Please model this.
Amino acid sequence: MITVHALDDGLVLPENEDKYREAFEAAGTTDRLVQLFTPTGGHCLFLAAWTPALQALTAWVEEGQKPSTASVSPTCGNCLTDQTPGPWGLRVVERRAKGAPVRTLVCSAEPGDCPAGATCIEAQHHCR
Model:
């Protein structure tokens, strides 16, 4: 999976990418995730990165060439950055979701990773 997110996206916070990474860590599949970031572009306006990211994903699947910021950025006029958003829990505090058991929430022991009254079992990457 390749994700592309603008660091200045005010609609879907780029810190959400932290939760994707945590989910892949919990599943033991971080080798299947590449997260790319653009410094600007807001929500869905980082058009220059879309085609190169899709081409990189295709090459990864068909040729086994796992992409990175360094390999994709030159193909889009250096539209990507090595900068990453901060931890999710510092911007958005996890809350209990109706119908979702706390144990289904992934975490990495960052502040706010689990709802109030729950703690992160870091070895399992899940709240309890």
Notes: Residues 2-86 form one domain. The helical segments are 16-27, 47-63, 69-72, 88-91. DSSP finds four helices and four strands in the chain.
